[in-house]
TrEMBL record:
Residues 347-442 form the Amidohydrolase-related domain. The keyword Hydrolase applies. PANTHER family: ALPHA-D-RIBOSE 1-METHYLPHOSPHONATE 5-TRIPHOSPHATE DIPHOSPHATASE. This is Imidazolonepropionase-like amidohydrolase. It comes from the Bacteria. SUPFAM superfamilies: Composite domain of metallo-dependent hydrolases (SSF51338), Metallo-dependent hydrolases (SSF51556). It comes from Microlunatus parietis. The lineage of its organism: Bacteria, Bacillati, Actinomycetota, Actinomycetes, Propionibacteriales.
Amino acid sequence: MINSAQRLAITHVTVVDVINGRSLPDHTVLITGDRIDRVGPADRIPVPEGFRVVDGTGRHLIPGLADMHLHDSGDERIDPPLLIANGVTTVRQMWGTPYLHEWRRRSDSGELVGPRWVIASPIVDGRPSLWEDAPVEQEYLAVGTEDEARAAVRRVKGEGADFVKVYSRLSPDALRAIADEAARLDIPFAGHLPDAVSLEAAIDLGQRSFEHLHRFGPETSRSFEALQAAMARVEPDWSPKYGSWFQQVGRIEWDAANTHSAHRAARLFDRLAAAGAAVCPTVVLHRVLERPDSVDPRDRRLDYLPGEMKSFYEYIVDGFYSGHRTPEEGFQHRVLFQWRLEVVASLEAAGVRLLAGTDTMTGYVFPGFSLHDELGLFVAAGLTPARALQTATIEPARYLGRDHRQGSVDEGKVADLVLLNADPLADIANTQAIRAVISRGRLYDRDALDGLLDGVRTAAAETPVPQGA
């Protein structure tokens, strides 16, 4: 058992009210076990006898952060503690595997330092899948018929998945079958917008979230019908298939960006908002995808990943993403990245629920660390720091139906908190100025967090993993 939940008093701290986007100075927060007991002005809340006092003078308290699009290395010594060390106390894991359910059990019981886990099914893709020639060990499900699609939903529901992860090559008939079976079994579905399915159709079917921004160009083009038909005709023709897919989709996206219709975008985004569907843009991934020149092969955060990740990341960037681009296509992708930021701004203006997520392990996107980068990119897109912070706190809680018990610093909610040395509402980069993390009521002060980071670095140096893990 790791350090158990305690009775804690965080005194004279500025509580960041993420729901209303304001600061509440000189407050005291009392924690008993894994719950927040009291929150209020310090002069009105005495510290009971027997509570451990954490002086919050000059510091800011935010809810624990959520990464809503995560993948993992497969090593429990790497990902779970690295997330906690970066203040990430909830994650939505987007490619389910049996060991993740064991990680969740052990994290919940206190045997493993780790966040709260929301776990997808294995990827459910069409046939042939984009993953069939990729160097990955995780299982995916390729379905070609409606019966196979329904069987996949039944299987993953029985295996304990929290939702069905749908993918790019699903046919319209297969997605309809998944939606129908998922509704029957009361399990949500979320993931990619399939190539041959329109955004409006997926909204009508009840897809809960849409990952990444690849499809928002064709969907908002005044040439939508022609570009939708082009998306449906995409057929990967060199290996790896995913790399070929990226190249073909990129060409369609360039045409879309140059035929963008603000009116069509406004109508679509209003429909998204009205349906309550969420978008997880993963801008930090798009920066690597569209701006491979921005990656740093000497990034010190690589020290926290298993040994062969450096060569795997090189393969991802040069093989999947950019290796077959012409110079002209390279320029186009750099322009597309700036356009992505404009899409995020438009989604925000329409009131679409935005979720902060990173797509870790897909090439220079790092567990824990990169969530802070994503928040910075949201601000670069035009969100206020307060709004960016909401995308990693209260908005994930609302999306998951957990806002009554997590996502803000309020009485009765779980004690998942991050104590910062500086104000995140003044500068979103201050979410990285972590003094302490409280996860399930357990306090990890700066020394403990540094110990977690040291342990991850040691484990990463000791244990190389196969490419694609």
